[in-house]
Amino acid sequence: MDKVVTSAAEAVTDIPDGATLSVGGFGLCGIPSVLIQALLEAGTTDLEVVSNNCGVDDWGLGLLLARKRIRRMVSSYVGENKEFARQYLAGELEVELTPQGTLAERMRAGGTGIAAFFTGTGVGTQVAEGGLPWKYDAAGNVVVSSPAKQTQVFETAEGPKEFVLERAIVADFGLVRAWKGDRHGNLVYRQSAGNFNNLAAMCGRVTVAEVEELVEPGEIDPAQVHTPGVFVHRVVALTPQQAADKRIEKRTVTEVGR
Fold this sequence. Notes:
Blueprint: E1 4-5, H1 8-11, E2 20-23, H2 33-42, E3 47-50, H3 61-66, E4 70-75, H4 82-89, E5 94-97, H5 100-112, E6 116-119, H6 126-129, E7 133-136, E8 142-145, E9 151-156, E10 159-167, E11 171-182, E12 187-188, H7 197-203, E13 204-215, E14 234-237, H8 240-244
Parallel strand pairs: 1-14, 2-3, 2-11, 3-4, 4-5, 11-13, 13-14
Antiparallel strand pairs: 6-10, 7-8, 9-10, 11-12
Organism: Nocardioides endophyticus
Protein name: Succinyl-CoA--3-ketoacid CoA transferase subunit A
Pfam family, one: CoA_trans
């Protein structure tokens, strides 16, 4: 039951080229930065990454992107990474843009064994009808576009409504960051740093968690656990320096007297 490994490098050593990763975080908040760095140093490439966004140019998943380690992204927001936009428009990166709530539910469904679900989000748009550009060639022509999805009309309290079928996401590996975790893999996230971490942990076949504070089994109140240890396979305890290294994406301050 002791899932603690000695280092981040050991925790990601068996992630192969071509793997699909689910990665927690929102912007730079709650990202598993130490595991991402270990993956970068391991040289792993040709990755498909499922994450709300792709970090920024010099931090988070942006580090893997800058070194052409990511082949495909499934995301809901990509606006803070200029290299991401460049690679996408140059035909170097495939991108499946997904509505944010739909992305969250696809990940949750993958973690709970639900193969697919119907949602009203995207009905009447290219999300349902297909044709969203997933990949360009170097000349700017669309070479891969999203397929049309199954739709169905259901009776609702407001009358008949059309819904679109979305398929669950299951990743080969999940990478997440927690505020606190025990040796059995039970995790607690702190405030907004929880974001996509619980979902990324759930939908990974093998989930690795870096934790800012490692405690012994029983020290976490079961009622406070956000991700049960059943979803977590490896735990990496961060050093105080690693735990404190949290970048701010956009620093906003108020001038004194205004």
